[in-house]
């Protein structure tokens, strides 16, 4: 699925709305402040495209809310997302030492043939990669199974692509304006 | 290739009310009829035979073959084909299961076994057809009653159509009994375990692999890599690079546009749309290209080329450093 033009427009609208909220307090800000504001509003705009249906969008909104809750609340005022924001699964906690110890004991008991070792290593690798993916995708720790993780990743990638496209075209337009 | 026989038991509404001995009795009657009917290739004949043997007519039998009529008429032509092919398969089945040991002492058990084999011949089920029955395996138990696992596959309930698309495969074990249970509608394949857990696992695994294929289409450069780990690696890199691009673009916009106006007043919507359509989605053609450091203008008049490319596969840290150094230099150049 590729980002559609309607998604682009929607994102742009939301983003502009967010920046408008920020604009009054703009005079004394440094570049980094502005950058932060831009990024935050872009992220919240991206997440609000999904209107709270996906896990990553909720996680992203939560992260933005920890940084600037006022902005977030203003941006999401139109949508009744307050209820959807906090509906999350408990974090999956993994005590690594205990898990490792038990795995060692299991491996000792098993008599490993060549095939088993290979498949076990492949599985370990895949597990490590999925853990890495969970770290990258927002809200990844809250996705309980791999199916959900991959669905969310799919959606997140598409949204990121719209975000990057819109931002890049804005930047280029601004560039063209600056040159003139 | 085995053809399927539509069994009326699955359609019977009152079936659940029967106790097991009644069911066995009914089966006994039914398979007698079936043995006779297999020689005849016509569905109306089958019905006649059923009616003939209806001397043991319970209500069950009535209700079941009323259902059977309903389905049988729908499957009229298919039925002939099914029966035509069924003979060799049936023989094969009987020979295969003859060595199967069953604890039941009475002749009823033996008859049941035959009936089960007959029933194990399944109609070829096209997806558009309504009901198909595949009998899976026996579970030998201490009691004399045996249980048949039935997996009914209905159009609306197929959880995993791709798995069951290969309808020519059958289960490995032959003898079975009918039990009233609700099943996840996945067809078991030949030579694979047919208990619930492994079926559910297999359905899950195939869901995951289907989604991974979508991801492979989405992420550029994933087609060359095989295996889950490589694809996941590419996905991780891609997502990270997209996130870094967002950071960079926002920084750039902050620098260029201190008023934080997105300049919509200047540009019309059409112009924006032109931008959107002209810009390809964040994709580069070559998979192994290093992360392109954007070219910064030496003077203020050049335009920035933010070329997007695939992330470098080996080192992720190096590009991030270059992002930051370059952004600092941009900042410096703009301030000049």
TrEMBL record, chain A:
Principal subcellular localisation of the protein: nucleus
Domain of life, source organism: Eukaryota
Cellular location(s): Nucleus
Keywords: Nucleus, Transcription, Transcription regulation
Domain IBH1-like N-terminal residue range list: 5-66
Record Pfam families: IBH1_N
CDD domains (alphabetical): bHLH_AtIBH1_like (cd11444)
Transcription keyword on record: yes
InterPro entries (alphabetical): bHLH_AtIBH1-like, IBH1-like, IBH1_N
Name the record gives this protein: IBH1-like N-terminal domain-containing protein
UniProtKB/TrEMBL annotation, chain B:
One GO CC term, this protein: nucleus
Keywords: DNA-binding, Nucleus, Transcription, Transcription regulation
Lineage: Eukaryota, Viridiplantae, Streptophyta, Embryophyta, Tracheophyta
Protein name: BHLH domain-containing protein
Compositionally biased spans, kind Basic and acidic residues: 163-172
SMART domains assigned: HLH (SM00353)
GO MF terms held by the record: DNA binding; DNA-binding transcription factor activity; protein dimerization activity
Main localization of the protein described in the UniProt heading: nucleus
Keyword flag Nucleus: yes
Pfam families, per database record: HLH
């Amino acid at each position: 699925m590729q980002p559609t033009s309607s998604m682009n427009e929607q994102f742009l609208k939301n983003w502009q709305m967010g920046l408008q909220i920020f604009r009054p307090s703009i005079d004394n800000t440094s570049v980094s402040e502005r950058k932060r504001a831009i990024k935050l509003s872009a992220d919240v705009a991206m997440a609000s495209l999904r209107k709270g249906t996906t896990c990553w969008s909720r996680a992203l909104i939560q992260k933005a809310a920890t940084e600037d809750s006022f902005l977030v609340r203003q941006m999401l005022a139109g949508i009744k997302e307050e209820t959807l924001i906090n509906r999350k699964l408990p974090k999956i906690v993994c005590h690594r030492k205990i898990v490792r110890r038990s795995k060692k004991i299991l491996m000792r008991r098993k008599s490993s043939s060549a095939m088993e070792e290979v498949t076990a290593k492949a599985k370990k690798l895949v597990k490590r990669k999925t853990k890495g993916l969970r770290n990258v995708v927002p809200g990844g720790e809250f996705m309980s199974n791999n199916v959900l993780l991959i669905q969310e990743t799919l959606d997140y990638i598409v949204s990121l692509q719209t975000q990057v496209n819109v931002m890049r075209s804005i930047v280029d337009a601004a560039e063209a304006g600056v040159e003139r | 290739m085995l053809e399927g026989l539509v069994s009326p038991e699955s359609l019977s509404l009152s079936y659940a009310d029967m106790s097991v001995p009644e069911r066995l009795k009914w089966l006994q009657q039914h398979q007698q009829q079936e043995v006779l009917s297999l020689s005849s290739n016509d569905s109306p004949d089958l019905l006649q035979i059923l009616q003939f043997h209806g001397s043991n007519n319970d209500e069950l039998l009535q209700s079941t073959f009323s259902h059977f009529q309903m389905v049988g008429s729908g499957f009229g032509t298919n039925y002939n084909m099914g029966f035509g092919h069924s003979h060799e398969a049936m023989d094969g089945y009987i020979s295969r299961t003859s060595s199967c040991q069953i604890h039941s002492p009475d002749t009823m058990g033996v008859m049941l076994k035959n009936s089960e084999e007959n029933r194990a011949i399944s109609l070829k089920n096209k997806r558009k057809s309504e009901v198909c029955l595949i009998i899976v395996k026996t579970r030998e138990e201490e009691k004399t009653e045996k249980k048949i696992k039935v997996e009914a596959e209905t159009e609306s309930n197929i959880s995993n159509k791709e798995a069951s698309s290969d309808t020519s495969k059958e289960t490995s074990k032959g003898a079975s009994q009918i039990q009233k249970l609700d099943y996840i509608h996945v067809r078991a394949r030949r030579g694979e375990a047919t208990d619930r857990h492994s079926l559910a696992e297999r359905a899950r695994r195939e869901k995951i692999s289907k989604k991974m294929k979508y991801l492979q289409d989405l992420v550029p450069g994933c087609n060359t890599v095989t295996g889950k780990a490589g694809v996941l690696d590419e996905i991780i890199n891609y997502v990270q690079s997209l996130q870094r691009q967002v950071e960079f673009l926002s920084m750039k916009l902050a620098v260029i546009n201190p008023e934080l106006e997105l300049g919509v007043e200047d540009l019309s919507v059409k112009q924006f749309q032109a931008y959107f359509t002209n810009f390809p989605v964040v994709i580069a053609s070559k998979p192994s290209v290093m992360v392109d450091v954007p070219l910064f203008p030496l003077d203020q008049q050049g335009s920035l080329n933010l070329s997007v490319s695939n992330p470098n596969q080996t080192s992720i840290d190096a590009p991030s450093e270059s992002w930051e150094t370059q952004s600092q230099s941009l900042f410096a150049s703009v301030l000049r």
